[in-house]
Design a protein that fits this description.
Blueprint (H helix, E strand, L loop, with lengths): L11 H7 L4 H7 L24 E7 L13 H6 L30 E4 L4 E4 L12 E7 L6 H10 L9 H9 L9 E4 L23 E2 L18 H19 L6 H24 L6 H6 L5 H18 L4 E6 L15 H25 L6 E7 L2 E6 L12 E4 L3 E7 L6 E3 L1 E2 L6 E3 L4 H11 L8 E4 L2 E4 L10 H4 L2
Parallel strand pairs: 1-7, 1-8, 4-12, 5-6, 5-7
Antiparallel strand pairs: 2-3, 4-11, 8-11, 9-10, 13-14, 15-16
């Protein structure tokens, strides 16, 4: 076992004998230096000094069109209605044969925003007011053109489900700055096509997986104290349980799985005390609630999530992920196969003001410098019309496009008001300064003070990392200058 990840020195045979065949505890034992047996979420120092301490990941489920949002393509106006020139080659898509469908210009209006002149479409008029805080990466790409694969690439850095999510890696690397709340919180808009692996811990210990927080009803299922049980009675009950657990653990000091389970009970009790107060936004001022759009039906839901995200990072939560468009009811999220512009107008109207409110609120409270805000989705969309006539798409829709798309980030010490990379003239493929998902994840880790090559976990005979054996185009140093 790699010594640089092991905090407990013990005889291997003795360890396996004491830990019920050992395999569960063996995984839990590989904690970073600084983690205690009693608390795998204890705060840990980064590899190097950094301003970034927390992440808010705004995930647009379904795949927003880059060429209608943050990547203007004037060449498409000239080529509108024509087939793609042969010079752009061919590529595989979910439904579309690109040699059989015409190119389609964006109907959106792009404008230069802020002092930087960053071009952003009119779908995001509110977010555009913060253009000078944004870095738009227009050259992202991967090879997954289905939702599950695209979401897996974005969330885990791997095309198949089962790897730890980026949030889990961040918490594994840095721990948490709160003892009373989950280190990693997820808020959903319906479901996720990738499912729970999108925020799962994979082969990392379960302590690092995301906890779903609801904005309607009880924030966490079963978090409320049972009826008829007073707070004092519950404290006494948990006190006795803690004492019994510690007596049981005393002769099993090397069993980190047991220690982690005891710690989870402690956190569950603390959450009953702290989660309801953090989730209670009724005491926020009317001005703050309006800033996030809570006074309007269209923006209230995502606005509540964004306001909750600010309250969570303010309370020490390390990683918060919000989902927009998780196929709730009859909605298809950002999956604009059919009438893409109509779809995007509807979805952007739900999130634009809340996102702008989040950026403004974080900045006014001095939290943006320490919080990385990341916006993106499964992939981008095609510069030509969807070819699935009768199969969910139409001539005004766009198919999935993983070969070139945009994300943006703000905060965490990054310098905004700029663009990194570019797609080709029609927005089909990343062309300049190409950024893989490994590169993107390495960059986020860098803003948090972590070297992606040093953040490893020993599993199945080798050291794994979020960026696998890649991530060479780490944008982190450039984002800070």
């Amino acid at each position: 076992m790699s010594t640089k990840h092991t905090t407990v020195a013990t005889d291997r045979r003795q360890f396996l004998a004491q830990s019920a065949l050992g395999f569960g505890a063996l995984a839990a034992s590989s904690l970073l230096p600084g983690a205690t047996l009693a608390n795998p979420l204890a705060a840990r120092k980064p590899h190097f000094a950094a301003k970034g301490k927390a992440v808010i990941f705004l995930f647009m489920h379904g795949g927003p069109s880059h060429i209608d949002t943050f990547d203007p393509k004037p060449a498409l106006v000239k080529l509108h209605g024509q087939p793609a020139p042969p010079s752009f080659g061919k590529a595989d898509f979910q439904f579309t044969r690109m040699d059989r469908v015409p190119l389609m210009a964006s109907p959106r209006v792009f404008k230069k925003r802020g002092q930087s002149g960053l071009e952003i479409s009119d779908l995001f008029e509110h977010t555009a007011q913060h253009a000078d805080d944004l870095t738009v990466i227009r050259s992202c790409y991967h090879d997954g053109f289905t939702h599950v694969t695209g979401q897996s690439w974005m969330n885990t850095g791997w095309p198949r489900v089962g790897r730890p999510s980026v949030g889990s890696w961040v918490v594994y690397g840095l721990g948490s700055e709160t003892d009373n709340l989950p280190a990693y919180v997820v808020m959903l808009d319906g479901g996720i096509k990738e499912g729970t692996p999108a925020y799962g811990s994979g082969f990392l210990p379960a302590a690092y997986q995301g906890t779903v927080l609801r904005t309607e009803g009880p924030p966490i299922l079963n978090v409320n104290r049972p009826a008829g049980l007073s707070e004092n009675e519950q404290k006494r009950m948990f006190g006795l349980l803690r004492d019994l657990n510690e007596q049981h653990r005393a002769p099993r000091a090397d069993d980190t799985e047991l220690a982690a389970r005891i710690a989870s009970y402690e956190l569950a009790f603390k959450m009953q005390m702290s989660v309801p107060s953090v989730a209670d936004i009724s005491k926020e001022s009317a001005a703050t609630r309006k800033l996030y759009g809570l006074d309007q039906a269209m923006t209230a839901e995502f606005g509540t999530q964004c306001l909750m995200a600010r309250r969570l990072v303010e309370s020490g939560v390390r990683f918060v992920q919000l989902y927009s468009g998780g196929k709730k009811g009859s909605e298809v999220g950002w999956d604009g196969h059919n009438e893409c512009d109509q779809n995007h107008q509807f979805m952007a109207a739900k999130v634009d003001k809340p996102i702008a409110g989040l950026l403004a609120d974080l900045k006014s409270r001095g939290l943006l410098e320490s919080t990385v805000v990341l916006w993106g989705g499964d992939f981008g969309r095609t510069p030509f019309t969807d070819g699935a006539e009768g199969g969910g798409g139409n001539r005004n829709g766009r198919d999935h496009n993983p070969y070139g798309f945009s994300v943006w980030l703000a905060g965490g010490g990054s310098k905004g008001g700029r663009v990194i990379g570019a797609t080709d003239d029609i927005g089909l493929r990343a062309q300049e300064d190409k950024v893989t998902m490994h590169d993107l994840h390495a960059s986020i880790l860098h803003l948090l003070g972590m070297d992606h090559k040093r953040l490893t976990y020993f599993y199945q005979g080798r050291d794994f990392r979020l960026t696998d054996v890649h991530g060479e185009n780490n944008l982190g140093p450039r984002l800070l200058t």
